[in-house]
Amino acid sequence: MATYVVIILSFLLVLTLTTIQLYTSNVSAEDRVTYTGAVVEYKPYETWHSPEDGIVVLQENALRYIEFMVEAREKGAHIIVFPENALTGGQIPKNQEKLMSVVQVLPDPAQRIVPCSLPDHPRQEVVKKLSCAAKKMGMYLVLTMPELVQNDPKDYPIIYNTQVVFDRSGALITRYRKKNLFLEFLFTPGTEDDSTAIFTTDFGVTFTLQICFDIVFAHPGLHNVEKFGIRDVAMSTSWFDEMPFLIADTVQNGWSRGLGINLLVAGFHKPSKSKLGSGIFKYFDSLDAEYVYDPKSGNKLIVSEITTLPSGSLVGDPKFSLPLSQPVLPVQPPDLRQIDSKEFHLIYHEDMSTYNNTFLTRGQPGQWLTETRCHKDGLCCHLTYQHSGSDTYLFTAYSGVVLKGFGVYKVYAQICGVVYCHEERLQTCGKPGLIPSIPHEEFGPFSIQGTFSVKYVYPTVIHRDLSIPAGSKFAFDKKHDDGSWNVSISTHNAIPSFMTGGMYGRWYDRDPM
User: Fold this and answer.
1) Burial class of residue 49, CB neighbours in 10 A (0-12, 13-18, 19+)
2) What pLDDT, in 10s, does the model give residues 442-478?
3) pLDDT tens per residue across span 311-323
4) CA–CA gap between residue 178 and residue 163 (Å, rounded)
5) In whole angstroms, what is the distance from residue 169 CA to residue 136 CA?
6) What is the CB neighbour count within 10 angstroms for residue 50?
7) Domain spanning 32-313 has what CATH number?
8) pTM above 0.90, yes or no
9) Which of 30, 245, 405, 513 is the least crowded, having the fewest Cβ atoms under 10 Å away?
């Protein structure tokens, strides 16, 4: 039995490497494109004394953005991405007056206007400054800002959370209005076609944009990846950490690996508000990721070379279609992970009380054990593992609606996973704040195989410090078989200081409308 399991685990790891090769096997090395991308984990200037200070906050953060652009240019970056909401100090204003003090008016990207060349305008100060910076640095610039649309002063203002792209000439070439808002009640969700999130660079790479909560849904990022074959995604985020499966770094890493794409993601840094995590995840043709997920990091620039398909080689599925999800109107109390005597990392938690859960049994060193959990919609999760230590782990399976944003939003998920618990009580599972400060045991090797109803399944493995292991440390594979998807995640060796491992599937077209 033991020899058989080891052979299977080794085969799965080889299969993962082979799958990555298949992503690019139809394109020769000479036809691929290599570019240098940059992302910024950013802790913004946020001092507000009155609504009139809005423009001061915008200007100060714009100047700090430019400092990062200078550093990124010195390191050869062709494109740089900044976080969601960071230009305005990181917090979404709670009243209309304060929000109106930071809104900007954006030109139509179809006109390829260079704001740097325009006269000063009272609601384009920062747009002009950043346009001039992109032109001076000769660099593509991706960021978000609150966009005002008001054709007549008598009209009620419409405000979007908008991601924009400036090209090397300083022209505003793309304007994507966030579709999937997260507790952003003063913003209007965007309704434009997903193609408004697409742009092509002069270094031969086509990107799609997405903002934060968009990664949970099919539009615009997934849609543009599938329909147009786009392999590179630029994402601005102000993430909301949730254990045990939706911590920022594992969501970003899993989405990139699950889709076989490159993800450049810039995150807003404020751990006390549950916000951190940025990186360049390069799963188009490798198992590499360069990222930061550190409550003490503060500002951090990441620059990395990325290999991808040139724009002319993209092949998608023109018939691909998924419905737009409509967000619907509480979760467990948050967990405070102490960083030092003055700072905490706020973490929210998934309610797993309705999942099919079981605590894992322990065996002898080297002994292989098995466990199976099933739930609705034909989901079955099969676990093969080694565990002889004293730590407690939960094995779980679930298919159904999960609540996000304090119950405001409902999405349909299928989940297989193993989660560390402080003790044999569900309320202690996946709680970093309860982890004792003693050496942590290993878990595994292990293999989880699930029969999912959906194609879109994303792997997750995290340590107890909430970092992610190197991509080569675990294998991930999925194949279609007789109407379902057989998906597996496995490790050849034990994972030290193990917190969570599993697979998170999204059934997009079953989201409650």
Assistant:
1) exposed
2) 999 999 999 999 999 999 999 999 999 999 999 999 9
3) 989 999 988 888 7
4) 7
5) 8
6) 10
7) 3.60.110.10
8) yes
9) 30
